[in-house]
Amino acid sequence: MEKIDAHLHLVRDLASYKGIGRSNALGNGEVIWDDGFKTRLFPAGWGADSFRMDQALQVLAQNGVSKAVLLQGSLYGFQNYYSWQAAKKHPDRFIAAFSVDPFADGAMKIVDRHVRDLGFRTMKLEISQGGGLMGYHEEFRLDADPRWEEIFEYIARYPGFVVAIDYGDAGQKSHQPEAIAHLAQRYPQLDFVVCHLSFPKPGKLAELASELRLLSRFDNISCDLAALQDIAQETNYPYPFCQEAVSLGKDILGSQRLLWGSDAPWSATFNRYDQLASWLQDAEIFSERDLHAVMYANAERIYFKPDNIKAMHESADPLVD
User: Fold this and answer.
1) pTM of the entire structure?
2) What is the CATH classification number for the domain harbouring 124?
3) pLDDT for the residue 87
4) Fewer Cβ close by (within 10 Å): the C or N end of the chain?
């Protein structure tokens, strides 16, 4: 079966920063944060303190994954330029997203460089309180903050632009599904992908259903299925609770608006990547046709638009080239 990993992270050099400070590499895939929290970010054999392009291509090939969407996150630090280099070198394998901190003085200059010069047509908003912008900035509303409004008005000039959003779980102030609904209505020319199926938690499926019904009102909102196992703290393959959550997503959003993704490398430290790449096939939630859509065709349609690939493929860095 053809597969696109719609949620993968490359890490050339760690530049992590979130609410618990910065991470410091310890080698052997492990890091320690400024508050003393120690964790493994990279599975054994993937890299001592990075997860680079060649290693990613090897992992994908070993698991029958033909393409990947390279997203960004504060967990590793924004890897915008390295992701652009990977997508430029392998346009048949990667499409890349960039991230920006809207609180930075040069935020709009950063957005303009990545969109106009480097040809990005996907932006990742890592706003979660637990691992993103709202963990180290004041609280903001994604649909009512003038800094974000300026950015959205800019990218809205490019129909087909994709915005992927990680807004954390319902216990975080960053959890704003209603803001995504407002933005999708305001900018119908953009595609929105809510990461992690809006963060389903055991015992909270009624709340998830309410959020998904809200998101389902807008045809330009989809959800990826990355890291559901981590969120539910589930390691019992093929993940019975995750199956319940995805079945609910299928019933409310439909199979054409769900995208498989892994959220590796970190997610692959809890459950092996081959399991993350195969669990939906073994779960038997979808028909063969719908499974192809979830595993491949939906990501191809949303992220790998011909115009978006062309924009990045034909871009050049005026500061280097």
Assistant:
1) 0.98
2) 3.20.20.140
3) 97
4) C
